[in-house]
Protein: Forkhead box protein N2b isoform X1
Amino acid sequence: MSLRGWSANLPSSLSPPWNRNPPGLMGPVVGMSPDKKAGSPGSQGGACGAGTLPEAESASSPLATSLDRLGRAGTGGAGTEGETTEDEELTNLNWLHENLLQNFSLGGPEDIEGSPDEHPLSSSSSSSISSSLSGGQAAERDPLKSKPPFSFSLLIFMAIEQSPSKSLPVKDIYSWILQHFPYFSSAPTGWKNSVRHNLSLNKCFRKVERSLGKRCCLPLQTNGKGSLWCVDPEFRPTLAQALRKQHFPNTHAFYTPPASPPSASSPPHHLLLMEQGSALRESDFDAATAMMLLKSASEQHSDPYDQEGPIDLSRRGEVVLVSRDPQQDHNYSSSPPPPLSRDVPSARRAQAPGPVGGKRVRLRHADLDEELKEAAGSLLHLAGVRPSLQVPKQRGRKSRKISRK
DNA sequence: GCAGACATAAACAACC
DNA sequence: GGGTTGTTTATGTCTG
Structure:
């Protein structure tokens, strides 16, 4: 129920911008959805709910406050159905930001560990939001109950990147997704299959032996079954870019090179938000994505995981290879700029060259610096340079799609 | 209309 | 034996 959840229940003008797919990055599929099976969602909630996932802490991050704010937004800020103002679109953006991007702060894992008291979605935060909404409209209007606008690849990417150890067992990936997207708690368990499917097929993710993983990871509260999954450092910038583009298809349209990169003393993004109050703007999301990029790019340079982890493809000073040839990259990727194909037959997959094979474009640290600069530019936008919000040209197509239903 | 991207389902094997 | 994990295949939908 991607579009049905995010758009079909809303006026077309309320459809979140991320549903207007950036070039090369397909949006959520409308047709087959976890809730397409009538009657099944409810029963699935218990099976995959947080209660059955005691290891959630390892992938958790503070969300309580943002969820509370989301609750307020759901009650008052979302506007009424039928209104088609730009502000309402921004309200949807608020959801994205406050639920996810805020976690991608400069603090990274430290931030997560630094606030153990706040257990995301534990408890009442989610239920209070639902209860704050009126009756049966809650599920429809509560974005927490709608399918997230991210592909599974990006969800997995975010989950892994949010983990202190930059690697997670599949169970913790489930937990992270459940915590941040309660939609899946009521969705059929097929989404877990999709997660595993992505992990297996997407070359952006790599399986790490648990014994090796522990070498660079914090102790995990798992039963030892399965492997750890991490993001291939080679594809981390690509995934970050995919995430950015998913948020801002028109990012480059308003990009202005920054005069200087943001200082290390810059306040975390959530602090900036606090200073600016609750009126979020689309530039905030750009900045949040910038945080993601900053974090991602910085880890390309100094991530201890890269230094001693089992995946050691991008050590300091070395080049990072990113394939740009779809013929060479028969992988399961969500990264748009190099259109990486996926879901290839196993035979083709076996024939596909490894991450270091094929036609490559060398992405040096200078390129990473460019991304850093771009992220810094986004921070400038956050500081007050408001970008022009272009109306995505897919709107017409979306309207067509909605009307087709 | 086609190719690519993505989601979903299902089968199967291995492991705990 | 049951549940989980991981892999593979197939199929449907949407978008460019």
